[in-house]
Amino acid sequence: MSAPATLYRKLVDSHTVAQLDAQNVLLFCDLHLMNEYTSPQAFAGLQEQGRGVAMPGQNVATVSHIIPTHPARYRVIQDPASALQASSLKRHCQRHDIALFDTNDALQGIEHIIAPEHGMVRPGMVVICGDSHTTTYGALGALGFGIGTSEVEHVLATQTLVYRLAQDMRIRVDGRLSAGTTAKDLVLMIISRIGAQGARGFVVEFCGEAIEALSVEARFTLCNMAVEAGARGALVAPDQKAIDYVLARAPDIDGLERERALAHWATLRSDECARFDAEHCFDATQVAPYVTWGTSPDQAVAIDGVVPGAEGAQRTSVERAQRYTGLASGTPLEGLPVQHVFIGSCTNGRIEDLRAVAQVVKGRHVAPGVRAMVVPGSGAVRAQAEAEGIATLLVRAGFEWRQPGCSMCLAMNDDVLAPGARCASTTNRNFEGRQGRGAITHLMSPAMAAAAALTGRITDVRKLEPLQ
């Protein structure tokens, strides 16, 4: 009888082609996603070696990071370097017969949104991509993680990866989130508690009543940001919600294959006596809307909190963050003026996020002096929001309704904040210069960002006066 195993070890063991040594295995990868800024170099390496792509059908590419999001019917990448990245990716995909969601594809979008929404990701898979937020797919019980360019080349050539084993961490969240709080608030709270390196070297499995209550899209947000605590992966055991989500988007799973899939997916959970190397427990009822104050996602406090004092082991990093953001110890975040609001990204650019924004915005208008942008995560999300009337509602309220892409999450296109501008953002990182040189980012949930757009300041969405 085999020893009790965690979900993580089950996924690794089922994909191990060879045990290389005590810490490393050769791992088979079910799905490899690519974007325009980490993949062209890998293709060039293949070409130099005279190699082909081992399994083209298990590789998918999209243009998302450098693409302009202006509301134009036909998009043209004006920046020469960015245009070269996109054209190189297209050329290589055509040569190797790899599916590509190109610049003007109606379904183009961010890889971490288009892959699940088109049924590419299923429970039990190993999914990799040259992007750190590949942890997103753990929401469906798939092991996802980011890789570097040299590893991209290895995967293209062999559909395998030399993989260093991680440790197991379990994070249990009991209770239920209260009204006005979301998965984004929960994960910001967790990161602030365990730290930016608190899960370094671990794959995290989330469980508990609060996690079970989350929608699949909310779980994407949770797993997406686990990497901001240093996690090498994030997992939620697939339940009926996850299974229904996948089956609704994967019509190819039918008949006998469906029976086999369901039987396999039922085994994808940690055994009762499985050992975890580290564990944390949190109470969802104690979660308030969270906002970052500094230059790292772990530098976050509840909306009624203040910028912490600079003391102890974190003194240097706190002082540097305070200098960059212009916020002194003891400064309240609630009421802090913002000039810009950005709603989108692979963290919060899904239809559920936009519905939450619309619910807050309905009947109101963006505050004077605030520029508010909404960038859907994919063409499918954009079309759905337009069909539901969300886009019209947002435009009438003074929001910019843009084309899909990564946009101001990392400012690799022309969506860039001016120096000193303060932005309420639904993205995943608030690093120095992340949204523009000298720009200041405050991470928060879509509902909180919407409230900031309407009031012109960081606002507790729970306090917005009900409309008559």
UniProtKB/TrEMBL annotation:
**Pfam families documented for this protein:** Aconitase
Gene3D superfamilies referenced in this protein's UniProt entry, alphabetically: Aconitase, domain 3
Q: List, alphabetically, the PROSITE patterns matched.
A: ACONITASE_1 (PS00450), ACONITASE_2 (PS01244)
Q: Name the InterPro entries for this protein.
A: 3-IsopropMal_deHydase_lsu (IPR004430), Acnase/IPM_dHydase_lsu_aba_1/3 (IPR015931), Acoase/IPM_deHydtase_lsu_aba (IPR001030), Aconitase_4Fe-4S_BS (IPR018136), Aconitase_4Fe-4S_dom (IPR036008), IPM_dehydratase_rel_enz (IPR050067), IPMI_cat (IPR033941)
Q: Which SUPFAM superfamilies does the entry mention?
A: Aconitase iron-sulfur domain
According to the lineage, what is the superkingdom? Bacteria
What this chain does, per the entry, is described as:
Catalyzes the isomerization between 2-isopropylmalate and 3-isopropylmalate, via the formation of 2-isopropylmaleate.
UniProt protein name = 3-isopropylmalate dehydratase
Q: What species does this protein belong to?
A: Variovorax soli
Q: Which lineage is the organism of this entry classified under, starting from the top rank?
A: Bacteria, Pseudomonadati, Pseudomonadota, Betaproteobacteria, Burkholderiales
